[in-house]
User: Fold these one by one.
Assistant:
Number 1:
Amino acid sequence: MSIDWTALAEIGLVLAVGLGLGPPLGSYLARVYLHRPAFGDRVFGPVERLLYRLLGVAPSEGMRAREYLGGLLLVNLLVGLWVWVLLLTQGHLFPTPPGFAPMGWDLALHTAVSFTTNTDFTHFTPETSLTEGAALLGLLIPLFLSAATGLSVAAAFSRSFFRKDGTLGNVYVDLIRSVTRVLLPIATLAAVVYLLLGVPDTLVSYVLAHPPGGAPFPLFLGPVAPWQSIELLGTNGGGYYGANAASPLATPNAGVALVGTALMLLLPFAVPFAFGQMVRRPGESYPIVGTMLAVFLIALGLFLFWETPAHLAAAGGRFASPIAGSFQLTSIYTNTGATNLTIGATAPLAQMDLFFGMFTQSTPGGAGTGFATLLVNLLLAVFIAGLMVGRTPEYLGKKIGLAQVRWAAFILLVHPILILLPTAITYAGGLAAFPPGSLPPLCSQGYCATSHQFTAILYEFTSEAANNGSGYGYGADATLYFNLVGSAVMLLGRFLPILGFFMIADGLSTQESQPAGSGTLRTQSVTFAVYLALILIIVTALLFLPVIALGPLGQIGG
């Protein structure tokens, strides 16, 4: 078996660049969210002040946890409703593409929820179901808002560790600055790079292609380069094409895939460095980044190993090139969800690898929320360590009490419940939710019979609960059942953990910081990073190993 050393070297270089930009970008993020002088103040400052005046926002007004959370939910609700109404009426408002298929209310609801929650799980083919106007005036808005929401959550959560007045910042200021200072500039630069690499960027919806000896057919174009830049930077994942990154127009060459890999890593690995700067303890970022990086690199190595021709020949799967494989693994582990291969055709052990990334949601996870999830695991790790040595657990001078542990447990348990409960109901035929004769189509067609098909159902709800958005590839989920259940799973999977983050932050932000004592756990160490990684892996395995055995592992030799 030959090894493509050139491709591996290119992957290593891209990973080094993406990860190497973490510290400087993290320092910039810290200055943005601490409102310190930063690059671009003269350009962005006047624009932001104008937006504050138009919206009636007082930038200096701090918000407590419940007020901040309420504003966050309100903005996301309004944007979600706007997208839903626009999708329902798009056929009357904008020119339609060839073969246009209008969305029903349930599909439009699923799409609006999906994009607003940073999931971007699509039950439709964009080329024939989405007008260009609906894409630019509708779905493009939550591509920015959902990423800004994740960054704002991370910023507010970080402030709770050094504030004592109960305030966490201003949600409207954080959302606006996340877009103007972070997402828009980087996405614009990335769009230019994509354009230079051959990704289309035009307002022309399609052109007719005339193949030799064949009938003309529409070749769909559009503003793909700017769409794809925010799609990957914001860990959204909703592609401009139904084939997502597997489309030759979205990924015309290996360079585009490599740039996309680096783009997905930027924010998830920068936010922990921003946290270290914000709490004035830069060393605290290294155990967090170390845990993320260790799990991610091991997962990447295993995925590329299991996707070699030798293993796939026995498993009957399809070989993925190292560059395509690294893009796919990065997409899943950053909760982006963009796909450039059929996940259901990968080796069973490779599928298990991808599942693990969605189960942890924090290695490194999505922009902002992945860091927040790992920080919750860190607080639990500190609490457990304190119990073992008989010390009062504390982190950064803040005591980890019963209230924080309860909410941390709530966050960790919500995820498996949202995955396992709908999976069990669907696998059983939907009888718990629907009367006899109204079974979900997958099961009514005998699709719940094998481990591979069980894995398809498990992947559907895992992807939605993790706000990942990648699809397994069986293509039978555009139904009322999956649209409604999926919408509920995505909403709860997004906002219940965010509720938990703010409840933890509410308790921490009112505490006085205590000086470190002889019993304080030393968290700035390699030992603690290893301990945190083991806690994360063990807890994840305990929660999900049974369904992994029934699904991906059950396919081996089957």
Number 2:
Amino acid sequence: MAADKSGWVVGKVLAEQARSRGDAPFIRFEDGPMHSFAEAHLLSNRAGNGYAALGVGFGDNVAVMLNNRLEYLWSWFGLSRIGGVLVGINTALKGTFLTHVLSNTKARIGLFEPEYLPWLVEIEDTIPDMEVVYVPGGVYDAGNLPPFKRIQVRNFDDIMAGGEAEIPSADDISYRDIGMIMFTSGTTGPSKGALMPHGHLYLFGHCMQVHLGMTTEDHYYIPMPLFHAQGILMQLYATLITGGSAVLVRQFRATTWIDDIRKHKATLANLLGVMNDFVLRQEVKETDTDNNLRMVCAVPVTEETMQALRSRFAIPKFNEIFGMTECNLPVCRPLGAPEEAGCSGKVWDEYFEVIIADPDTDEEVATGEVGEILVRPKEPYCFMQGYNGMPERTVETWRNFWFHTGDAGRMDERGYVWYIDRIKDTIRRRGENISSFEVEAVFLDHEAIAECAAVAVKAEEGGEDEVLICIILEKGADTPKPEDLLDYATPRMPYFAVPRYIDYVTEIPTTPTAKIQKNKLRERGLSASAWDRDVAGYKVKR
């Protein structure tokens, strides 16, 4: 039987929680006041009425380029009550990247941090649809605005003066309607705006609610950016659906991560990618184990990293989940499943189908073999509805009636799915598939290494893929000889995964969510400073 999705709209969820939970605590920003469900609902009505007074209606896009702050939420909640669509913009975008997002969505109204307004000035002539930009009241300074030629800049308080009256049209918004456009970072070509219906958004939060066993007693620590599905859907929306509470902070800070969690008495937290290593590299304190955490969702994580986090911070339980902006969270670890690092869990078969397929043929591979993770939904509108204004990319991604994640994985005989790497980040050498994540994990355990990234590069002879490891050293650390690094790494990894090239660098490109931009390293290729073990005559022991 199909699920009853009639209430799967964020504005409706908030209204129901305001009725049932009322004055119960819901959300605060850092050390600010706690807002109850009832207060958040009234603020969402004010935002919705304010946007409606500006002519924003069903299907209209509103561009939001804010740091984490509560105005982001009031806008999202309010827009959902009038049928508007929130376009969350990565706060690192500028120039042609920002032009692309705004041109693609044709937003005429924006909500921006003042620090990003100069970037708008620079591209004003290329975004003719943009008419007016609002700035949060607390940071709005009419006497210190950049010199726009055409775009007007106003105080967001004007929108929040829209009145707290209930919005009659809110009941007409459906789970089938688009509620958000979220742009994927992509590795080639312009970023793609995923059209996300309300049913799709809801299932992100519901998945976390189910697989983390969330209750009204949980308090989520949210440092992830709200333009990312982790922050706004997997953490914030999950909290709203559950009726729990959360603290939102401006950004992830490894230096204060556990201190913030202790101060806010958080029971749940997420770690993504290199955030695991950043947290573990902080100075050990006697108070590290003094916290209320009951579970951390760490994606991805090695056995060594998981055990280090567990012992360092006394974390009782870990979870891993596999998903993407476009296809939701189709693979989840059940609460009672064994904690096996690198295992994402089982297919959430109530809502999704998943197979592991040959990326060239889309034919399912044998159990245990590595292939591409392909997904399709069982419920309508629980998946993205395509890429905004990019029908050809939509068709390409949906080849043979399966959504192609671009991720490599395998499914074991128990039905558990193991994430391996991005297909493009999976290095194939001498007929063997090599996970860049696993290569990096070995080197990150070396005391002299602060950060690293492994990518495939073409050797100067033969044109076959070889492994390059780019390394940032710890401050004050002596530069180890490349041979010594390989002596350290070789016993800890398969011989075929040992890097041929080592390059000491001062910077590794990352996104604002701390994901390493492997495409930029691959495009750069081998630099003149890269050490070549073949030239040096270093022989890898099998």
Number 3:
Amino acid sequence: MKETQLTRRRRRSPWLILAVLCIAVLIVVIDNTIVNVALPTLSAKLNASDSGLQWIVDSYSLPFAGLLLAGGEISDRWGRRRVMQASLLSFALFSLVAAQSHSLTQLLTARALMGVSAAFIFPATLSLITASFDDLAARAKAFGIWGATAGVAIAVGPIAGGYLIDHFWFGSVFVVNVPVACLTIALAAFVVPESRSPVMRRVDLGGLFLGSVSVTTLVLGIIEGPSWGWLSARVLGLFAVSLVTLLLFARYERHLVDPMLDVRLFRRGAFSAAAGAIATSFFCLFGFVFLVTQYFQLVHDYTPLSAGVHTLPFALATIIATPIGAVVALRIGIRWVVSSGLVIMGAAMMWMTQFGAHAAYWGPVVISMMVLAVGFSFISSPSTSALMGSLTAAQIGAGAAVNETTRELGGTLGVAVVGSVFSSLFARRIAEVLGPLGLGHHGIEVAQRSMQAALRVVAMAGPAARSAATYEGLDQAFMDGFHRGCVVAAVAAIVVGVVTFFYLPGSAATPGHTIHPLAHFDAA
């Protein structure tokens, strides 16, 4: 029987399709961390406080997380390749706007629009991968490569950002997105077949509004808690709005015939456990990256490039351990691998609480980073396989969005929570260190904004303030906040690791082992 055009296209190059999609993944994910190494520079150039630095990171990941479900729906409806290409173009344009920022407001606006664009890129890549691979083993390997790409992008971001900051201006960390996005658009036009869901559903505007409001108000309250006061009316009001809109979202979605997010899926222990494991791993990772890039530059006094290079062992460990985790999960089951990965991450974060301000890099610092990378690598790919494999063909777009929403929401909350825990204790310790030096209330208040601000205040103070003891006190204030943030992340990872063990499948097999007959490519 003569092969159809559809059969030839599917058989021709699923791995080549994967390679192009991984470039799209790379550009979207790397922007989550490439900016971290630039935070001290941005703090100085744009006069950003600790909360401002948190917003530089979260202004990208927050709309990214909030619109992923809509991104999955729209790419299913309009065509996954088409939506991905259009979104890559807008991503490149807003990157140029971010590169020319002259104020914190302009940068945050551009970063938010980049996050909106990214929300329509990522679900399309995962949906296209799912549609490209019919065989369970091949699909699991593809998810492993996809997960490794995302993990490596997170780890390589600080290195690339450090090089660009050292050799160019801060805007170069955004300009670099443009040629990569254009290359991906061109390659996708020749390599990636169009794909869409045959089941056309309406865009759930009500669910999108309620879900976005809930996440945004929660993150806003967490980030601004240290400066506004955790018990202030504004912060408590934001938390109340977040809780109410979350409950309304769940109720609204539950009563729709065709919801954007079928919240009933979370009644399944395996589905919820996989989503929770992914969110927690990114919670820990993003919180750690947010702090460690500043630790290297502001405490160890590394240049931006040196700070990025010092994260290279994390990247190497991720490259090696991610495919190993995927293979081991196929052999012994997802439960053991994912739960172990979370506990390992928690142990690594707890180990970091023992670092002093000037701990040897070639010793506890680098070893703990590599242990953290191993734990992280054991979680993403197996959890993604479990989550995506449980879906029907019509659900893969929404499922891809749910999968990535957990990542981005976990990362967003990681920066918000760990960063706010750090800021709360750091500000208190700075007041204790600088209070006796007679710098005045205003000087101390400025110093509490960030480590960069504290160093500037002391540098402009009198000779008595610029003593070794003062600088040692600033370093210790930073480390106290660093340690407290690590404790929070460690406890979260260990608790979730223990809980997920009882809900994740003991076998590697999932309902997704059969061909998705409806997750088709267009013949044209």
